[in-house]
Design a protein that fits this description.
Number of domains: 2
CATH superfamily of the largest domain: SPOUT methyltransferase, trefoil knot domain
Protein name: RNA methyltransferase
GO molecular function, one term: RNA methyltransferase activity
Largest sheet: 7 strands, parallel
Helix content: 25-40%
Strand order of the largest sheet: 8-7-6-11-9-12-10
CATH topology of the largest domain: Alpha/beta knot
Radius of gyration: 20 Å
Shape: elongated
Organism: Cryobacterium gelidum
Keywords: Methyltransferase, Transferase
CATH architecture of the largest domain: 3-Layer(aba) Sandwich
Structural class: alpha/beta
Number of helices: 10
CATH class of the largest domain: Alpha Beta
Order of helices and strands: EHEHEHEHEHEHEHEHEEEHEH
Distance between the termini: 48 Å
Length: 268
């Protein structure tokens, strides 16, 4: 499909980019599971490689050829809209620092059993509401080697634009899905043989230096929301509670930083 020069910001084909929130994109009409925004050629490439289907691309003139190259076989059928930076900023509400963004069809989330099949080290996020933290945790998981991530119903959506951007697209690489309540999730973990270690500041918490992660073939690291921490239900469902030893009177780290430390310590 040839490049399409934008001459009217009211073109209905551009509606995916017109100041829409992540929530609105998730509920986009005419889609099976909603949409998400992939920001940058790198993220678009990772999305396509993961099997996600692009709906359209919005690009600065000097990145159009790169967009076509990344689209690969989709280049023949996916429209690539091109315009100057000022016009695209007016359309989207922000400057395209990375040169392009793409509207992507959200895939159907896999079942938790599918995500856990063959996994040895996983991360569970309970009620982590900040998409920046979610994205940073996914990036650490991809780099350090977690096999999968489970997110609870109140956790921020990993497909939100900020989460995907902060993760450098690893949200599209690390297998993940949503789980239900703790009764259901505990049964799921037991079925797959997982020992769940909760990262929390409790009186019975064991230092990560002393916790033998290698003693568990299947290990799940549970992380909670900043401020509130883990719920009583999550702690009750856990097999162990661990904490990161600290100095200078500091009792905790940002959840994204703590996740990286704990994942590395338990990578086994």
């Amino acid at each position: 499909m040839p490049l399409i020069a934008i001459d009217d910001l009211n073109d209905p084909r551009l509606v995916d980019y017109a100041h829409l929130t992540d929530v609105a994109l998730k509920k986009a009409r005419g889609t099976e599971h909603g949409l998400y925004i992939a920001e940058s050629a790198l993220v678009l490439e990772r999305a396509v490689r993961a099997g996600h289907v692009p709906r359209s691309v919005l690009a600065l003139g000097n990145t159009a050829d790169e967009a076509l190259a990344v689209l690969g076989d989709y280049a023949a059928e996916v429209p690539v809209f091109v315009g100057p930076g000022e016009m695209l900023a007016e359309l989207t509400g922000y400057i395209l620092h990375r040169g392009l963004i793409a509207s992507m069809h959200r895939p159907e989330l896999p079942s938790a059993d599918t995500v856990l099949a063959g996994a040895r080290r996983i991360v569970i996020l309970e009620n982590v509401s900040d998409p920046t933290n979610v994205g940073a945790i996914f990036r650490s998981a991809g780099a350090i080697g977690a096999d999968a991530i489970l997110v609870t119903p109140r956790c921020s959506d990993p497909f939100y634009r900020r989460a995907i951007r902060v993760s450098m697209g690893t949200v599209l690489q690390v297998p993940w899905t949503r789980v239900g309540d703790w009764t259901e999730t505990r049964a799921l973990l037991t079925r797959h043989g997982f020992h769940m270690a909760a990262l929390a500041l409790t009186a019975d918490a064991v230092s990560l230096r002393d916790f033998d992660g290698t003693g568990h073939e299947h290990l799940a690291l549970l992380l909670g929301a900043e401020g509130e921490g883990l719920t009583p239900e999550a702690l009750a469902a856990s097999d162990s509670v661990v904490q990161i030893p600290m100095k200078h009177g500091i009792d905790s780290l940002n959840v994204a930083a703590a996740s990286a430390v704990a994942m590395w310590a338990l990578s086994g």
